[in-house]
Amino acid sequence: MLTILGFAMIATFLVLIMMKKMSPIAALVLIPALFCVIVGKGAHLGDYVIDGVSSLAPTAAMLMFAIVYFGVMIDVGLFDPIVRGILKFCKADPMRIVVGTALLAAIVSLDGDGSTTFMITVSAMYPLYKRLKMSLVVMTGVAATANGVMNTLPWGGPTARAATALKLDASDIFVPMIPALAVGLVFVIVLAYFLGLRERRRLGVLTLDEVLEEESVEEKQTVLVGNGSDGATGKVRLDKGNGSTATGGSGTDAEVPEEDDDFQGLDPDRATLRPKLLWFNVLLTVGLLTAMIMEVLPIPVLFLIGAALALTVNFPKIPDQKARLAAHADNVLNVSGMVFAAAVFTGVLQGTGMVDSMAKWLVDIIPGSMGPHMALVTGVLSLPLTYFMSNDGFYFGVLPVLAEAGAAHGVTPLEMARASLVGQPLHMSSPLVPAVYVLVGMAKVEFGDHTRFVVKWAAMTSLVILGAGILFGII
Length: 475
What we know:
By secondary structure, this protein is mainly α. The chain has 22 helices and two strands. It has helices spanning about 1-20, 25-40, 45-75, 80-90, 95-110, 115-130, 135-150, 160-165, 170-175, 180-205, 210-225, 280-295, 300-315, 320-325, 330-350, 355-365, 375-390, 390-405, 415-420, 425, 435-445, 445-470, and strands at about 235-240, 245-250. A two-stranded antiparallel ribbon has the order 1-2. A hairpin with a 4-residue loop joins β1 and β2 (about 245-250). α3 (about 45-75) packs across α6 and α10 packs across α22 (about 445-470).
């Protein structure tokens, strides 16, 4: 019964948010609360929630101060040279921009932290997507999938968990997997290329001067059209890609151009710029990321200190500091709220025993004839299990059981550990991963829209890695 209820709870959550019948925060809280009562353990709901919140509180704190830190860095112009450089290099070509998104996300993922990767990637790429009217779910989908492949780095988490659970050396797991992971990363770049071509066909190719000229025209038209008698935002877009003129009601509300946050990343005249402090901000950011990789202090403490330093040095006046905090309050509240809401979901799943029951059921239904192919089975199971479970639950709860079953048929723990990593591209878009809320929150994308777009591509990437691992004899 617990197994059925566990799958029903997850399915209900996914259906409701993908159909946009409930917001993710409401669904993450109310659906597990309801199922906790149905299971008959409603009296323990408080304990389950407190346990979940306690486990995710450090993550929420890290995200809160990391958003403030990178928000301040955006305000002061740290990423402006990157944004301008990418725009000039890509020549406003949607195909190149999507491929650039994949490459940037993969490179930044070397720090091993998904939240940081998404904050930097979105900070750099969001203004380009907005200027060119590109699909934002393409950006979030490509970034999440690229980060998922790179999340298998030994310091990224999953590899270390697999090594700990099976008492293996992390390098013995990871190094032989590099060729298969490289194939997966190439697949993501190829995917980005074709998604970019699709965007290019839809929008056309512009030059930097045309983009800036178009924006200037749009700003004037937005003010004129937005002041119509019906109050609607019938914003006009001049599509130079096909020479046509289109109207869209989904644009931003008519407002004074200088106040449009969507374009602050490239606004050379905004009041928050601190060009004289550029090198201080560069050194502070590099030092912060280095300290994080070296684990000098816990990550939440590092970002707390970094945010305090960034605010104090760049904005020494208290009113200016308050203004910067207020400017990023929406993102902070949205992301931290998602994390604490997810704590309710994970707390109920684990506290009621639904996760354990689901895992045991999946292991039990594996036919005995599949014993010699347990590495393949583990690779396939890693897709749904790491999507519907936390990495801790999968690697410490399910993988040891699967490894024992494989050992009985001569499958080595190393093969099992490597196979368990292939689901990470899909895992990074799981509703139980706090970093994904940073991604969709900063990109202003609905979580349901992101899920509908990314699941098929991320699952395909995972299967490509699994196939490459088998082909190379790694798995």
